[in-house]
Design a protein that fits this description.
The protein is of the alpha/beta class and 185 residues long. Helix content is 30%, strand content 21%. Strands 1, 2, 3, 4, 5, 6, 7 and 8 form an 8-stranded mixed sheet that branches. α1 packs across α2 and α3 packs across α4. The chain is globular, with a radius of gyration of 15 Å. The N and C termini lie close together (11 Å). The N terminus is likely disordered.
Length: 185
Amino acid sequence: MSSGPAPHVTSSAFDAAAACRLLLVRHAKAVPKHVTEDFERALSDRGRTDAPQAGRWLAESGFEPRLVLCSPARRTRQTWQLIAPALPDAPPAVYDDRLYDAAPSTLATVLAERGAGVSHLMLVGHNTGIHELATALCGTGPPNLLERLAEGLPTSGVVVVDLPRGWESLTPGDGHLTAFWAPAH
């Protein structure tokens, strides 16, 4: 995780040639692991502050999903529930058990299955899988954003990836890193 990332870092508007836009969101900061069973971990005070900021950034930047795929873990559900009110038109959310603490290959499978016919999709999930998926997909993008992404994906972080070949062809390096946001701490 980088120290003191700029709160708003974007590069370009949506490329009309891109077939799909993927918004990857790491859940907001949760209570420590020793507090409760992992699946039931709730957001911490910081998480409840940061998640709405992510929603406001998405709305202000015009990155609006048409569908949300969300891990059913308590902290991911709470993250989405705090992001949604900031969006002008919050889309439906699908809670898929396979997204809980999933590997990048599982995330890609769920995207391919559920993304059909959806141009803008948000995935709210967990590290390390969500960060690994983002770094694997992003073959191009502004060097400063690619470097920040390589350093890590902080809690409440948002990665915007344009995918020219759609959900069925999620090939490593095929995506363009369009934007990256993380709360300033």
